[in-house]
Structure formats: structure tokens, C-alpha cells
Amino acid sequence: SAVISQKPSRDICQRGTSLTIQCQVDSQVTMMFWYRQQPGQSLTLIATANQGSEATYESGFVIDKFPISRPNLTFSTLTVSNMSPEDSSIYLCSVVQGAGYTFGSGTRLTVV
Amino acid sequence: AQSVTQPDIHITVSEGASLELRCNYSYGATPYLFWYVQSPGQGLQLLLKYFSGDTLVQGIKGFEAEFKRSQSSFNLRKPSVHWSDAAEYFCAVQSGANNLFFGTGTRLTVIP
Which of A30, A32, A69, B10 shows its CA 20 to 30 Å from the CA of A45? Predict the structure, then answer.
């Protein structure tokens, strides 16, 4: 299965600033996914990122708040913009390859 | 619409005891089902998955799960729990659009 490198692993940010999270995969994948896991909650899909096209956002998530880039088949970034304390969460990227999903180790974001 | 229910928020078992974590799903078609484990501060690790065929699925770390269509369930079991199994466990169902929908998770505590 694919190996995903996600960084940063954690960050503490000031409200009103933005953070870009990177996700690097060791093989080419068509679809990459970004999830949010709020404290004590399950994972919620933010968007699906395909190379060469705009990301597809789930209900409740918008591009202005969570812009995504997918410049090639092994890399994607998620930006959390104009952060507020409510954005404090773990953000995870994921890929589907063959019959399974693989997840990055996550980025633990705290907004103060 | 697809959904996943994990009715047990928190379970405590003694080391060496058996374990069963419950998962019920709602999905119109034949589901693809997954169990993931998340250790504190870690990403998600796939324990096992069911796509078709034998309804009893073997996974890593001695876990197994049984798919019961009549009950819309996919319960996770382990005959003898180890202290290192303490973690958060998530059941997930895959929709036709390659999206994973997660349950709210069950936190497992293992006592000596």
C-alpha cells in the first residue's frame, strides 16, 4: 500500500492566519482526500482532490476556507485560511489505491 | 444516505478478556466496510476490510470482523485483548463515490 508523508505533524497558530498542510505519496494516485477530525469526534471528509481539476468539496466546506492544490499525482496541499479556534482539529490526507485506503499520520492544529 | 453507527462510545475490558466492538451501517447497495484503529497522537491504521466473499474477515493484530447483512452489522472481535490494543476504533463504509463515511468511534481502555 501507499506510504503517505504528511507535514507538519502539529502546529499552533494565531487566529486570523493561515496554515498549509502538505501530503506527499510515494506512488501516483488518482484521488486524494482531506479529512478533518475535531476533538473527540470522528472523521469528516472535507474534499476530494483530483489532479488537473478543481477539488470537490463536501457540504459545509468551501474553497475559500479550505483551498486545495493538486499539482501532480503524488502531492497535495490543504490550506486552512483565516483560522479561528473552531478550526482546531486533526487534519488527515488519504489516498485510495486498489482495494484500500491509506491515511497520513495527521496534522494536529491548535488555533489560539 | 449512508451512515455508520457505533453505539458504544467507550468500552473498558481487562487484559486477556475477549472484545467485541459494534458497528451498524446504513447503505443502499452492497457495502464495502472497514475497521480502523487510531492510537493516541497517531494516524489511522487499517485493521481489516470486507468487500465480498467470506463474511468472516481476518485482520491484523489478531482482530476479526463478521459481516451480517441481515443485521446490517460489521462487529469487530478479538479473543484476547492486549494492553497495546487501547486506542480509538472506527468503523467505516465506502460509498460508490470512493468516499469513506466513519462512525463516531469507540474508545477502548484496557485494564491490567
Answer: B10
